[in-house]
Specification:
single chain; two-stranded antiparallel ribbon; 7 helices
Length: 187
């Protein structure tokens, strides 16, 4: 996925809007108690999503046979799907690490009896969190497309086999097919 495609995607646009909009709605100083809970929720959601997403990627990678991958690579669909999953997996992992860091940061500030933190930490995290969720949604749509391609491939493969069987049966029933090519049979 190119940088231009990434920056022009709707999920990046939603994340950018979140980054621009949340500071307008957030006070300059935010309670550490509040954002610690926010980061904790982010950790829970991202942990589940990351593990499920990783398992889905493993299933897609292992369920492909060589013929199907070659079929998808005719128009570079397989590479695009895998790259989308790779990008999203990295994004989910980065968002999870950010949530863990910010949770520990907020807990340490509370332990030091600092009640507030700058609004920029939760605003940036909100944008990264939204971007990872929307990218995961996009990748899920790609997995649906992958399933459609798989169905189309199986149908095309079955039709090709039926056609080959029909052509083979017609050749066997012809005079040349039964005689092994006409009068070339030795007596």
């Amino acid at each position: 996925m190119s940088l231009r495609q990434t920056l022009c995607s709707w999920d990046f646009g939603v994340a950018a809007a979140t980054l621009i909009g949340t500071p307008l709605l957030t006070p300059v100083w935010v309670s550490n108690d509040l954002v610690k809970e926010f980061y904790g929720t982010g950790i829970a959601v991202l942990s589940i999503l990351f593990s499920v997403f990783f398992a889905a990627l493993a299933i897609i990678m292992s369920s492909s046979d060589d013929d199907f991958v070659a079929f998808l690579e005719e128009d570079k669909s397989y590479t695009r799907i895998v790259e989308t999953f790779r990008f999203t997996l990295i994004l989910l992992f980065a968002a999870l690490l950010a949530a863990l860091f910010l949770y520990v940061y907020s807990a340490a500030r509370l332990d030091a009896h600092v009640k507030y933190q700058s609004r920029w930490w939760p605003c940036v995290f909100a944008a990264v969190f939204v971007y990872s969720l929307t990218a995961a949604f996009n990748a899920s749509l790609d997995s649906v497309m992958y399933s459609r391609y798989r169905s189309r491939f199986i149908l095309a493969h079955r039709v090709a086999k039926a056609h080959d069987c029909h052509v083979g049966a017609a050749a066997d029933s012809s005079p040349q097919g039964r005689a092994g090519g006409g009068g070339s049979r030795a007596i």
